[in-house]
Amino acid sequence: MEILNVRENGIYVDATVGLGGHASEIVSKIGAGGVFVGVDRDDSALQHSRELLGNSGAHLCKGNFSEIKGILADLNIREADGFLFDLGVSMLQLKEYSRGFSFSSPERLDMRMDASQRLTAWEVVNRYQEKDLQRILREYGEEPFGRKIAKAIVAQRKKTSFDTCIELADFIAGIYGKRGKMHPATRTFQALRIEVNKELDELKQGLSAALSVLKPGGRMAVISYHSLEDRIVKNFIRDNGRAGLLRILTKKPVVPSYDEVRKNPSSRSAKLRGAERV
After folding, report:
1. Is 129 within 8 Å of 150 (Cβ atoms)?
2. What value does the mean pLDDT take over residues 146-154?
3. Which CATH number fits domain 11-91+199-277: 3.40.50.150, 3.40.710.10, 3.40.109.10, 3.80.10.10?
């Protein structure tokens, strides 16, 4: 909230409205004269936000980051005072085993944030060529055993398909042979999720869309959860700072305190960056 500098009667966009936690705080600060737009590609998340925000007058819209400018245009909004992006998978998506995001899920590999789209993690794991699996594991998972995992998946799926999350997670754990603090399938599942939802491409388009409608003095705040996301955000803010379009508000990313991580372990990898439109 400090980085966004939420003002009464302002226009604010939460590009990842999720369960509405950030949204409710912003709505309480902008007052009756303000405008709030919440965007999410997940129908279930939007329903949660509708229930939480009730009769606040908030505009809740389904869409990807790449569609933000069009969504705002449909609402006759041409400039905004602030944008918030809280990236990655939500706890709601992880806890709903039917969504196919969790290592422990006995449900079918899915990982779609938008359940209406066609591509699923099942398709990626069971249909992609070995070279393409290697690529996404390397680029999106930064998985050091990417080549070995891709090769093993392709060999195994000739015998039987990988249908559930837990089947794939256990198979990858067997390739590693031992477990450290992080589950052996963490990087693979991250890579699959990013591929299915085109998260990095969408993030780049979303940041550009936000900048194009941000008022002078308006602010953007972005919370990322892994190095690929954070690198894109860092470079975007840096490059537009050098171009004279943004003023950097966070020379180093803001990270959760020790106490916050104890209370909310899922925040441990979060990095918050902010910038102001010049």
Report:
1. no
2. 97
3. 3.40.50.150
pLDDT value at residue 55: 87
Phi/psi at 61 (5° precision): -130, 140
Burial class (CB in 10 A: 0-12, 13-18, 19+), 55: exposed
* Segment holding 205, helix H or strand E: helix 199-213
| pLDDT, tens digit (0-9, with 9 covering 90-100), for 36-50 | 999 999 998 899 999
Contact 268, 256 (CB under 8 A): yes
What CATH superfamily classification does 98-197 receive?
Putative methyltransferase TM0872, insert domain (1.10.150.170)
Per-residue b or e along 167-199, where b marks 16 or more CB atoms closer than 10 Å to that residue's CB: bbbebbeeeeeeeeeebbbebbbbbbbbbbbbb
CB contact at 8 A, 160 and 171:
no
Distances from the Cα of 29 to the Cα of 5, 12, 154, angstroms: 10, 11, 53
Residue 29 to residue 32: CA distance in whole angstroms: 9
